[in-house]
Specification:
The protein is of the alpha/beta class. It has two domains: 293 residues, FAD/NAD(P)-binding domain (3-Layer(bba) Sandwich); 142 residues, 3-Layer(bba) Sandwich (FAD/NAD(P)-binding domain). The strands form five sheets. Strands 1, 2, 3, 4, 5, 6, 17 and 18 form an eight-stranded mixed β-sheet that branches. Strands 7-16-8-9-12 form a five-stranded parallel β-sheet, with no helix packed on it. The longest helix has 21 residues. The chain is globular and about 75 Å long. The N terminus is likely disordered.
């Protein structure tokens, strides 16, 4: 008996919509489905909700988007303690919002989705989980791009006898006091935890392939009197959110205007010169690529931490020999622990290996390391399936702006399905190809493609499968309503 036949013969709980993942996008989807009165279920692999803000608990973990903008527009939070919220604040916000909108009861934790298969005959999805089989007409994959930490393959790593871990899997029981620590990577996590741990360790060796551009972080604790004002006068918080949104939109746009980008880059250069007096160290920490080519980071403590005598900044890792790490320039460091600050699989999300559509192959096989998705939300050969935070949606703005735009599109689709008695939606391949060609064409002139750096924005085939080339105004407009003309539909038989 084939797997499909076996699956069909099994009785299993069935829902109209199943959401996979209970992070920011998953909770947002649950709220909108609940408000629409739909039959749905949320499957979460972990013991609790929270997504990336549950997983990442490294020292001083926080957000680089101002708090008023880092929330659902329909659930403003007057209780932020910091202008740039810390990890525990965001996690608590996720919990409180889920409770406020009454969706906690629809979430099943400890339910990891192992495989999703489309049944062409029944026009439903079967979801194999760690707790059994489920089925649904529609699936919303809200797993997020920051799902699986990336650890580089390093020659001789198996000979290392010390402690090693990724920043997204922080070992809080490991005592860093008076240890010699190697940090590999200089991304968004390193820029936060390195200043937080540097005072307690004996020596820190930072292995960097390329230094990031770093801007000052306009962070402060929000006084309780302002929290009270936000509660009493919600329009103040709403206005602040709009102002910050416009500022980020200007930043996003300016990156692809040479004169404006140069001004921003000069500001970042002044920050380096103001913060680092040692000329040799300054040279090591000054990027040679255009600002915006890689993710721009913000910190008031990064350069101060790296200026300490106990810190050595060197090149990328070449190999490991026992407890010695050898850099590409031949220098070496004896260390007790290695902390990988090497990010996540973004361009090639691991969840794609578990989704099998109408063609009978996984999304990973279909994409071949270079995903093509329509409006970051639907993909060919996967009827009745939606992605959140899909390829070519990344912008220098709040994740919530993208999430809410996508949820409008998805809910518009589901409501049209309901009103027009539609059984299945299949993305029109021609429309998808036309759209993706336009996206790639627009990206050719951007700093992400031409800024002179190597980044996770570019996939293994050389395509930029990460960035959105236009404004978020355009993104929100494109996702405002679902267009049936972009899909091949099959209606329920009379």
């Amino acid at each position: 008996m084939s797997e499909e036949s076996l699956t069909q013969s099994q009785a299993c709980p069935h829902h109209e919509v199943i959401v996979v993942g209970a992070g920011l996008a998953g909770i947002g989807a649950a709220i909108k489905l609940h408000q629409a009165g739909m039959d749905f279920l949320v499957l979460e692999k972990a013991a609790e909700i929270g997504g990336v803000w549950r997983e990442n608990t490294y020292p001083d973990c926080g957000c680089d988007v101002p708090s008023p903008l880092y929330s659902y527009s329909f659930a403003p939070n007057p209780n932020w303690q910091h202008f740039f919220a810390k990890q525990h604040e965001i996690k608590n916000y996720t919990f409180e919002t889920a409770k406020q909108f009454g969706v906690m009861g629809a979430i099943k934790c400890h339910h990891e989705m192992l495989k999703a298969t489309w049944c062409t005959e029944k026009k439903i999805w079967y979801l194999h989980t760690s707790k059994g089989l489920y089925s649904s007409r529609f699936v919303i994959m809200a797993c997020g791009p920051m799902h699986k930490p990336t650890v580089p393959k390093i020659e001789g790593f198996e000979t290392f006898t010390g402690t090693s871990f990724h920043s997204a899997q922080w070992q809080h029981d490991y005592d860093l006091q008076n240890k010699r620590v190697a940090v590999i990577g200089t991304g968004a996590s390193a820029i936060q935890f390195v200043p937080a741990i540097v005072d307690q360790i004996k020596q820190l060796t930072l292995f960097q392939r390329t230094p990031p551009w770093v801007l000052p972080k306009m962070d402060w604790r929000i006084p309780s009197r302002w929290q009270k004002r936000f509660k009493r006068f919600p329009f103040i918080l709403s206005l602040l959110r709009k102002v910050i949104y416009l500022q980020f939109e200007f930043l996003n746009t300016s990156l692809n205007w040479p004169k404006l980008r140069l001004r921003l880059q000069n500001g970042a250069l002044k920050n380096i010169h103001r913060s680092i007096k040692n000329e040799d160290l300054r040279a090591k920490l000054t990027p040679t690529f255009a600002i915006g080519c890689k993710r721009i980071l913000m910190s008031n403590t990064w350069y101060k931490a790296l200026s300490q005598e106990k810190v050595v900044v060197t090149n990328g890792v070449q190999k490991i020999r026992g407890n010695s790490i050898i850099a590409s320039d031949g220098t070496s460091a004896e260390v007790d622990a290695i902390i990988f600050a090497t990010g996540f699989e973004v361009a090639n999300p691991p969840i794609a290996e578990r989704i099998f559509g109408s063609a009978g192959i996984s999304l990973a096989e279909q994409w071949q390391g270079s995903p093509e998705v329509y409006l970051g939300t639907t993909t060919k050969d996967c009827p009745n399936l939606f992605l959140t935070f899909g390829p070519n949606l990344y912008t220098f703005s709040s994740a919530f702006v993208i999430i809410e735009a996508q949820l409008k599109y998805i809910m518009s689709a589901l409501l049209k399905v309901r009103s027009k008695n539609i059984k299945s939606l299949q993305l029109n391949e021609e429309r998808s190809t036309q759209y993706n060609n336009k996206v790639q064409q627009a990206l050719q002139s951007t700093v992400w493609n031409n800024g002179g750096c190597t980044s996770y924005f570019i996939d293994k085939t050389g395509r930029n499968s990460t960035n959105w080339p236009w404004t978020t105004f355009t993104l929100r407009k494109r996702l405002r309503r679902f267009n049936l003309k972009d899909y091949n539909i099959e209606k329920v038989s009379p």
